[in-house]
Amino acid sequence: MRNALQCLWLTVLILLIPGSPSLWAAELPAPSATAAAPLPVISQSDLQALQQRLDALKQQISAANNYNQLEGPQDRVQAFILDVDKLSTALLPQQAQLTVQLGVLGAAPDTGIASEQADIIAQRASLTEQKNKVDATLKSLAALKQSAADLITQIAGIRRTLLESELTLGTDSVLNPDFWSPLINPSPDDRQRLSFFVQQIEETWATVWAPGQHVYTVLLVLLALLIWTYGRRLAERGLTWVCIHRMPEGRLRRSALAFASALATIATTAIALHVLFYALTRHAPLTPVLATFSDEFEKVVYACVLITGLSRALLSTQHPSWRLPAIADPVALALKPFPRILSCALLVLVTLVQVSNATGMSSQIVLAGRGVIAMVVLAIVVTMLLQVSKARKAMIAANDASAAGSTFSGVIFTVASLSMFVAAMALLTGYVSLARFITYELVWSYIVLSGFYLLIQVIKDACEHVFSPRHASGKALKQLLGVGDRRLDQMSILLSGFSRAGLLLLAVIALFVGGIGTTLGQLASNIMAILGGAGLRKLNIVPGHLLNAVLALMIGIWLIRALRRWLDNEFLPKTDMDPGMCASLSTLFSNIGYAFVILLTLSSLGVKWTNLAWIVSALSVGIGFGLQEIVKNFVSGLILLTERPVKVGDLISISGVEGDIRRINVRATEIQLSDRSIVIVPNSQLISQNLRNVTLGGSAQGVASLELVFPLDIDPEEVKDLLLNAYCENETVLEKPAPFVRFSKLTPDGITLTVTGYVASPRIVGVTKSDLLFEVLKRLGAAGIALAKPAEST
C-alpha cells in the first residue's frame, strides 16, 4: 500500500497538466486536407468517424456510475458539437457556390421546346450531383449535431438524477470505523485499478524520460516552475507598474491593480500548465484514462488558482490602500493564510478523488474521499470563521470604529456558519455526499462572488473614468457626440448600471450552473445555453454580431448629430425658409434618422425581420390597451411637422394657454408663456381642439385697447382729443389703421370710453398698453381730469 501511495504522489507531481482530448481530436478530418483544396471535402469515412466518436461518448456516458464521472464526457460532447459546427460552416460556401452556378445554367428545358449543347447538360448534371452530395453531408452533420444536443440534455438529466440520489444517500457516519475501512484496506479490485493507473503513469514517464530526453524534460519542467513562481511575481510587478504609472490616480487605478494581480496569477499558471503538458505529451498522447484524469485535474488547478488569486487581489494585505472591499486590516490579516491552505488542501484531496473516478474505483472509495474533503474544508472554514470573530472582538474591545462591519459581511458570515453546521450534521449522520456538496457550493460561491465583484468594480470605475469630463476620454466624447457634462454623467451611470445588472445576472446563473472543477469555457457554454435559448436563436442573434451592432449605433448617432448641426448652422440658415420651418425640418430629420439607425443596429445584430412578428403582436396589444395615447401623440407630432398648422415661433392660444411655440417634439409641444415658464401640451390637443394661431398669416397686428371710466361732468370731446393724441404720439402705434375712441357705455356711475390702436405685432401689445396707460394717466392729471370712482355699496 505504501508503494501505491508513493506512485500516487508521483502522479500528482507529473500530471500538473491541462487536459487535451487528443484521442478524440485524432478522429476528426485532418485540417491540412481541407486547407490544400479551395473548398473542403468531407468523405463518407469522415462522417462515419464522427458517428463512431459520438457512439463512444454515448457508451462512456452510459457506463458512468457517479455524478463526477459525467463532467468529462459532457465537455467532450460540447467539443463534438463545435467540431460539427466548424465542418458545417466550411461546407456552406461550397453549397452557395454550387447554387449560384446552377442558377447561371438555369433549369433544364422541357423536351421538344429547346435543345441544349451536350457540354451544358453534362455540366448541369455534374453540378447537381455535387450539390446533392453537399446537401446530404450537411443534413448528416445536422443530424449528428441534433443527436449530440439531445445527448447534452440526457447528460443533464442523468447528472440531476445522480446528484439527487447521492445527496439523499445515507451511509455510515464518519465516526464509524467501517466508513474508513475502504481507504485503510482497499478491495483487490480497487488495488488492481490503482496499479493499472500507476502502470500507465510509469509508461508515460518512461516515454518522457527516454535516453536523450533527460535534459529537455528537465528544462521544460524547470521552465514551468519558473513561470509558475518567479514568472507570476514578475508579471504582477509589471502590471502593477503599468497601473501606477500609466493610469490616473483614483478609483480606476485601485480596481485595475486588484484585477492585474488576479490576472497575473491565472495567466502564468495557465502558461505553466501548458508547458508541463507539452513536456509530458510531446512524444505520445496520453491514454484515455490519463486524458480523463488530466481534464479534471486541470479544472481543479484553475479552481485553486482562482481561490488564491482572487483572495490576494481583494485582501491586498501588503497594500491596504489598494483594497477594494471594506475589510478592516485585522480581519484581512486574519483571513490571509486560509485561501492558500484551502487551495492546497483541495488540490491534493480532489486530485486523489479524481484518480478514483478516472479509474472507476468502487463507490465506497469515492464516498470515503468525499468525506475526507468535506471534513478538511469544514475544519478550514470553521477555523477561519473563528479567527475572523476573534479579530472583530479585539477591534470592538479597542473601540475601533471599523469593527461594526456591513450588513453584507454579516450575511456572508451567517450563511457560512449555517452551512458549516449543516455539513457537520450531515457528516455525523452519514450523509457524506450532502456534506461534500455543501462545502463545494460554499467554495464555488466564494469564487463566483469574488470574481464578479472584481469585474463589477473594474467596469464601474472604468465607466466613471472614460465618461469623466476631467479626463481626455471624456473631452473627446464631448467633442465627438456634441453633448454636455450632464449627458456624459448620464451615459456613465446608464452604462455602469446596465453592466452591473448584466454581471449580477451572470453571477446568479453561474452559481447554479457551475461548481468546483467548472472551466471558464464550460461555464460560458452553460450560461449561453440558458441565455441563448430558442428565442434568441429565432432572432438570429450571434455574439459575434454584438460588436457590429454597437459600432453601427455609435456611428449612426454621431452622423445624425453631425448632419443636424450642419443643417442648423450652415444649410438651413442660407435658405429662404422661416426659422419655424427650419426647426421643423431639423426635428423631422432627426426622428427619421434615429429610426433608421435603430433598424440598422438590429440588422447588424443579425435580427431577421420575419422573426419579429411577435414584437408587432405585442405592440398591437399594447397599443390597444395602454399605448394608444402615446401613439396618437406621436402621429399628431408627425402631422404637425409635415402639415405645419403651427410652427416653432408662432403665438398661439389653446385651452386658456397663450404663448410662443418653443419646440415641437415627437410626443408633445413646448409653449413658452410671457413669464418664461414652459407648458407641455400633448400634440393630439393641437390637432383635435380649437386653436388660435395669432401669427399664422404672417402679417398679424396687435390691438392695444384701454377702457376708461370718467365722471359724468367731464367734457367728452376734450377727453377724446387727449386720448387720441396720446395714441398718435406713441411710436409703436400704427398710423394705419388709425387709432380711434369709441363711446362704449353711459351709466349713472360715469362715462365709459374705449380707445383702440394697432401695433405691428401681437407680442408687443402688453408693453404698448402699459406705456400708453402711463402716458394717459399723466396727461389726465395735468389736465385736471380724474377717473370715476367706483360707487360704494350700501
TrEMBL record:
Q: Which domain of life is it from?
A: Bacteria
Residue ranges of the Mechanosensitive ion channel MscS domain? Answer: 630-695
Keyword check for Transmembrane helix, yes or no: yes
Q: Where in the cell is it found?
A: Cell membrane
Transmembrane segments in this chain: where? 215-235, 256-280, 338-355, 367-386, 407-431, 437-456, 501-521, 541-560, 581-600, 612-631
Question: Per the record, a Pfam family?
Answer: DUF3772
* Domain named Mechanosensitive ion channel MscS C-terminal: residues: 710-786
Segment forming the signal sequence: 1-25
How the protein sits in the membrane? Answer: Multi-pass membrane protein
Q: Does the keyword Transmembrane apply?
A: yes
DUF3772 domain residues are 139-199
Q: Which InterPro entries match?
A: DUF3772, LSM_dom_sf, MS_channel_1st, MS_channel_C, MscS-like_channel, MscS_beta-dom_sf, MscS_channel_2nd, MscS_channel_C_sf
Q: What name does the UniProt record give this protein?
A: DUF3772 domain-containing protein
Annotated organism of origin: Pseudomonas monsensis
